[in-house]
Task: structure prediction
Amino acid sequence: MKPFVVTFDLSTLHPGAHARLTALLADEGLSAWTFAGGEEVRLPNTTVTGYFASREAADAAFVRALKSLQRELPGQVTSPKRFVIPQAEDGLVVSDQPRPSDAFARAILGMPSAIPAPLSTLGSLLGATKGGVAGR
Result:
């Protein structure tokens, strides 16, 4: 399995389409979070990454999510232009949004650090995906 990046241009008249597509992409193993410079950072809004056996498998995962969205919003979502490329090792990601650490999340949520809470719970409260990049 290798990491692949999918970048796309979604055109739609439906205001919630992008958020819903992001959730459907996560179900297919594609995430807006990646590792760069030793930390987990958020990719731009129309870029996701995930681990797949091939470029074709990554594209097929994107297409499945898109078709699910098109079934949910008939006639409101067009097939976007997209590019699927291998993700470079130690690639540069310009992001101003690092994933919050467990301690940082606890501070924001006002939780004492002595109370253990699974990161998946904190992640869901912060809108993150479990485990960061899918497949890791």
User: Anything to note?
Assistant: DSSP finds four helices and five strands in the chain.
